Amino acid sequence: MKKITTHVLTLLVMVSVCTSPALAASLPAADNTAKTEPAPAAVTSAVDEFRNLSKHERKTRIKEVKKVLKDYKADKRAGRAAETDQVLLAILAILLPPLAVYLKEEEVNTKFWISLILTLLFWIPGVIFALLVVFDVI
Fold it and tell me: Measured between alpha carbons, how far is residue 35 from residues 1, 4, 82, 125 in Å?
């Protein structure tokens, strides 16, 4: 989930850096741009415009995108990014605790198995354990 979000964010940053204001104005406005995909025509035109740039301008824009991505990853590690992910994981921890633990940990590890066993035996302890994992208490 984090990888997908990072890839979508990278694509959106590339498109926003590479597109002209007229093209950006023609895109539909959305409050949650990290979860929407740009139109295929917009991506194609942005890539074409990027290819038409001089070599120096391309390098400059790529450096800008790398800097933004680096800042995003640093914020993510520090816990300052994507509060919506935390809220969705909390809701999922109540409904399906093992899935929330898996999405938070991004692998099947001991926390996942503990959550699964607690959920199968007694649902409430599974929910409590999943909430503790989602909020990084454990």
Answer: 12, 10, 11, 32
